[in-house]
Amino acid sequence: MAYKRNIDRLPIPPRDARVNNVTCHFCIVGCGYKAYTWPMNRQGGPAPGENAYGEDLRGQQGADSAGWVAPSMYNVVKQDGRDVQIVIKPDHDCVVNSGLGSIRGARMAEVSYSAVTGTQQARLTDPLIWRYGTMSPTSWEDSLSLVAEVTRRVVEEQGEDGLIVSAYDHGGAGGGYENTWATGKLYFESMKVKNIRIHNRPAYNSEVHGTRDMGVGELNNCYEDAELADTIFVAGANSLETQTNYFLNHWVPNLRGTSLDKKKQELPNEPHAAARVIIVDPRRTVTIAACEAEAGKDNVLHLQINSGTDLALFNALFTEIASRGWVDRSFINASTTGFDAAVAGNRTSVEDAARITGLSVADIRKAASWIAEPKQGGARRRTMFAYEKGIIWGNDNYRTNQAMVNVALATGNIGRPGGGCVRLGGHQEGYARPSDAHVGRPAAYVDQLLIQGKGGIHHVWGCDHFKTTLNAGEFKRTYQRRTNMVKEAMDSVPAGDRPAQVEAIMKAIRAGGLFTVNVDIVPTQIGSCAHVVLPAATSGEMNLTSMNGERRMRLTERYMDPPGRAMPDCLIAARLAQALERTWRAAGKAEVADRFRGYDWQTEEDAFNDGYRKHEKGGEFVTYARLRAMGTNGFQEPAVGLAGTGPVAAGTTTGATPGMVVQGPAIEGARGKEPVQQAGPNTGLSAAAAPPSGGTEPIIGTKRLYADGKFNRPDGRATFAVAEWRGLQAEGKQAEKDKHRFLINNGRANHVWQSAYLDQHNDFVRDRFPYPYIEMNPADMQELRLSPGDLVEVFNGNGATQAVAWPEAQVRRNETFMLFAYPTGVQGNVVSKATNELIIPNYKQTWGDIRKISDAPAAVRHLSWKTQEYRPAG
Amino acid sequence: MSGCNKVAEAGRRFFLGRGALAAAGAAAVAAAPAAPAKAAPALAQVTYPRAKLANIRDLKPNEPLDIAYPDADSPGVLLKLGTRVEGGVGPDGDVVAYSTLCPHKGYPMFYRTDDRTLNCPGHYSRFDCEKGGLQVWGHATQNLAQYRLRVDGNGDIQAEGVDELIYGRHSNVLG
């Protein structure tokens, strides 16, 4: 039977319950929530005046009620050392989600650590060290001193290249400004570590170098643009499942036509209709089905391309639009360079593109028309361009990204209402780090270095390569072997004899071993190899700032205690830095020790003030107090001033003179998200009158980037790119395709956040997905004698993995779709190590064969194998 | 004394374990200082009414019958699926009943006869009526509330309880 909680009544928070601002710590959208906490021995009542929601709970509540709380939104947690009841429910006043809660975010309470209800008991509570053949608890001081000492010894012997780092660089639970700053300061300022990588890719690089190099930061519009667009053009994204409430709250109104009044009001003097949508995806997704249900099939164009051929399509659209003259000539002239060269260099006929992509000529022409054919009366068509992992983890990332931005620039759709050319995003963002210029480009392919036996110590912050890397099978085998060498060495001498331990560890490292420290909130698969594990706090257990996909920055307030002795990452990094200072000083290297000063932070706010406030554009306006006062709506980065004193510059620009970079050029290079603010008498660190640091004045933000037509290039102009089609770019992909029958396309499921690091411990999700699924065409399943739920092996020359088969008639023959990054079957095992020239992995274009392992396991026999796709009534 | 406290703590932990959160609410009710002095002690569980939904003769295979339970404001559906299912009642083991308010945002759902699912027009969630209301796909953080049924000797189908919190209620039984 389906999992049921058998909960038939929930406590009601009293009127005076404490209320904290919460931004969901999962996906990029960053929905607003409120956390209500109250003592165990108190409760409110159902009348509006008796409960914290101010809602009438006495009768059956209607749809979209602000008063209803699902059991997953309730828990009992520790707050300031005491058990309290907690409800975390969607905020109806947040402009991002307007009260909507996703299947992931609306479980934030239930996936919190509770010693009372037993949720997330897997959370790490103590620093652990490998002792006596197991991971054993110890003190912060003991664990950090070992990490520091081994780090110093490795750096002394191998240089800083011997220290390999894996670290998140995002927002929400994937970082946040406090934590990215602290880790960045440690590795990029106190040290110059260049062998570093990010959580889901094997190098330290942007996923969207292509657009940034053209001068177009990737988060340049606002969510309202999806309500204003005439056409939404989306490639390689399944937004209903991966940006759920952005899709539901901002795309759907436009598809339904309910945002028409807003369009007419904000954009008078041009005709308006409900939106049309073009979706480029080799798979028919639930997003497409939802678009058809809302807009009608006539207004939805699914370009079901051959996997990996997006670039040829984009170039054909660019060519077609240019040849018909549907371009924004005045924008091109004023704000761009290289248009004519790009038209010549990317020339692709509709017929050639049809052959490559498998689409019809008519559909490509139709797409060009929907994107760019002027509206009645000659008004420019407003098209919003959006993309995500289908492009980012797809064939020829850099050029494909650029080919799409070409179309957006040619049609004048960046920096204008109803436009934008944006990545849709996975995690929220929260990047504030010193320059990473020393990392170089291309950045080091870190996972290959580890496989090749390089490095002596590995610092891992919130990353689990075993689930989220490519060539994962080989990586795991090598990593286990190397780290086990050190474990055996540690077992060979008494644990309490620190000098002997360090000597044994160093000897093993010299023989090819690897010492690894893992900082995380839960035990991870790569963490099973660690010698030291350090327990971290997550969002809500600490104050944490991040921004969402429209650069909306909010503060999630601390509403509960971290488990056990867990600490915010920024404070762990600070203590590690201080331990490094001590060990270098003890070793007589005062000049090295001195580099690790400046970490005397007591709170996460200290880290924020040291990092974001001093180093990010507009940071001088942003304080915890102001963010707290701005609630779940926050402001859109970059900050440009404070209410009362007004913006210090009109809009944003690359500077007072073209190309002028006012503040933080290195950060700009690394981040490329927005232009720097214009220099003015009241801006910048050098300003005579710095903004006050006290007060709760609202912060003035930036709704859209590039509204002034100036871009992130030295001359202030965006540049078109020549991006020619070159087939399957990554080495060996074409041969893999030729050799194996099935496309092993892969991605996300609505139920699951990221690698299921919390969901794997959640009864509701674990019941639904004990194993990853692989969607297959029923006829293919029949040929392989597979029944629904049967366990299959997916295999190719790169490795093998497992999944349960889910028949889906909408999946094309010889194509499949497998859940990505799942703990009980890692799709990355069958992804080759080949990347693009900038070390961006190519997860999407993977081919393999499939064979049956066994009949459906007991854990899946109660599940449903019906189609996930919604079809309207009638 | 500390030993006594530990026992009390262990008891409370058991009491508040997952699957007993409803009891936690009830416990809090019992402890509310505002409770009238003369009120009878509250029970630990919600007391469900027993209500006749239909007679087995009224049902035809795969034809949904609108019902309401535990009260008139809580719409539901009674189904004879035509195939024996786990949790089904009646002579063929194929009779089931569910709330039809989507446990995501409370929109009324419609039944698809072609695949025996309840579907939400609000945000596209789908629930499998042959699998205990399992959410096939959707936004709800719970599977669909199913009614506990009993068939009397005369074929009357009685509802006697619910296995999940119904949308729009802090308590499945109000008032």
Beta fraction of chain A: 15-25%
Mean pLDDT of chain B: 85
Shape of chain B: globular
Number of strands of chain A: 30
Percent helix of chain B, as a range, is 10-25%
Strand content of chain B: 25-35%
Question: For this entry, what is the oligomeric state of its chains?
Answer: heterodimer
> Which consecutive residue ranges of chain A, at least 5 long each, have pLDDT under 50?
649-689
Distance between the termini of chain B: 41 Å
Q: What global shape of chain A is seen?
A: globular
Helix-strand makeup class of chain A: alpha/beta
- Radius of gyration of chain A equals 27 Å
- Describe the largest sheet of chain B: 4 strands, antiparallel
Largest sheet of chain A: 7 strands, mixed
Q: Please identify the structural class of chain B as seen in this structure.
A: alpha+beta
Strand order of the biggest β-sheet of chain B: 5-6-7-8
- Counting DSSP H or I runs of 4 or more residues, the number of helices of chain A is 28
Order of helices and strands of chain B: HHEEEEEEEEEE
Helical percent range of chain A? 25-40%
Largest interface: A-B, 70 and 72 residues
Question: Could you characterize what this model shows?
Answer:
The complex is a heterodimer of chains A (874) and B (175). Chain A has 874 residues and is of the alpha/beta class. In chain A, a hairpin with an 8-residue loop joins β1 and β2. In chain A, α1 (140-158) packs across α20 (569-586). The longest helix of chain A is centred in the middle third of the chain and has 20 residues, at 472-491. Chain A is globular. The model of chain A is unreliable at 649-689 (pLDDT under 50). Chain B is α+β, with helices and mostly antiparallel strands. Chain B has two helices and ten strands. Chain B has helices spanning 2-15, 21-31; strands at residues 51-55, 65-68, 75-80, 95-99, 110-112, 117-119, 126-128, 134-137, 147-151, 156-162. In chain B, the strands form three sheets. In chain B, strands 5-6-7-8 form a four-stranded antiparallel sheet, with no helix packed on it. Chain B has a three-stranded antiparallel sheet with strand order 1-10-9, with no helix packed on it. A three-stranded antiparallel sheet of chain B has the order 2-3-4, with no helix packed on it. Chain B is globular and about 55 Å long. At the A-B interface, α8 and α27 of A face α2 and β8 of B.
